[in-house]
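fyi for ur records
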Amino acid sequence: MIKNILSLIIASIISIVALGQQQPENPGFENWEDVGLNIPEPIDWSSIKTSDGGSFLNGMAPYVWEQSTDAHTGTYSVKLINGSVIGIVAAGTVTNGRIHAEMSGTGWAYTIPADAQWNTPFTQKPDSIAVWLKHAPAGSDAAQVKALLHTGSAKIPDATSTNYIAMAEINVPATTPTWTRFSAPFNYLNSNDPEYILIVVSAADESATLGTESYFDDIELIYNPLVLDLIAFMEGPYAGGSQMNTGLNPDYIPLSQPYNTAPWNYAGTESVVALPNTNIVDWLLVELRDAATATAATSATIIAQQAAFLLQDGSIVGMDGTSRLSFDNIINENMFVVIKHRNHLGIMSANPLVKTDGYYAYAFSDAAGNIYGGAAGAKQLETFGQEVWGMIAGDGDANGTVNNVDKTSFWSILSGKSGYLSGDYNMDGQINNSDKNEAWLINIDESTQVPN
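which gave:
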């Protein structure tokens, strides 16, 4: 196995285009090379003939792979065949690491961190792995794909699981005469960050039957998007009964996100041709932070931002006015969500969001304890029936504190005006005494609790 520099460059470009989602090298077995054997090996993959057993053992080892033109996509796939030498059956196997082989038949695949030829650097955390394959077992052999995320040196198999972070394993024991897609999730053993990925593709496991044949193509790592189901309310437009007024809709709400200026300086291009929903209250800026704890979730841990619409019932949705927000990001520790608005104090989830039924649901409104800083960073909007907590109004300059500047520079000089204005704290489209007396005045000296 010789690392192909061109393929690495291409993979890097593809990775950037695909929002940074890393994939295996030469996953479709399209690229092959002459490494001094009778047949080529797939680039970035190695076989028992290039094991660490030395020239004698490698010379005796059977050819257990072929470059096949029977492919799922593209021109080639890899065909693996269980072969034998001096009565020992060797499983048809290729790996993106190196194979350790012994005369007894004992062997494993492993990563060598000190030698770039025998390792594949990898730092992300995919959800699952998928492969297209065909399988013709001679006995009970299962076609297999094993993928290990790990640090340092690691091998497959390893009863001690040294340096393991996550493992995914596809097993297909049944005859599969046509190209079929199979997948398996990664089982994460800890929250450590990986350094390498080790993949082993085989026509059988440790016990192999002579004559088994398997074809493999199009290995893919799957990254499911982060889908968020968020509920939040704002004090200014709150009307009671878990509903907000929509006084800015449709005359004043802009069609492009308004957070492209200081202090947000968000460069997102979210926009609509027309407001997609009559229930839209205003634009929000949603921010993802990846940290071990809420206290550690400072601005340095921001991994993504997205402008969104806030609906009358507190739902935070995408540009179609109905869909949950989706982010193509990887969480390494815990996900905390920050909600920002142009004239309300920002809030952050006090707890990391947990994935349930395919998405991350979080209701900031349900309790003060759901908002970082509790009652110091939020306002109780309703006490009868169920509690409703929300964002504090009155921060005209969005600096995180309600103070005199929010009156003099954002309310006083524009009093009597109408429009999409920061001093319109109750968000009815008009700047008048209600904004001053019922929002700014009662919140003077309140500050956001979102960590800087």
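Residues 226-443 form one domain. thats all i got for now
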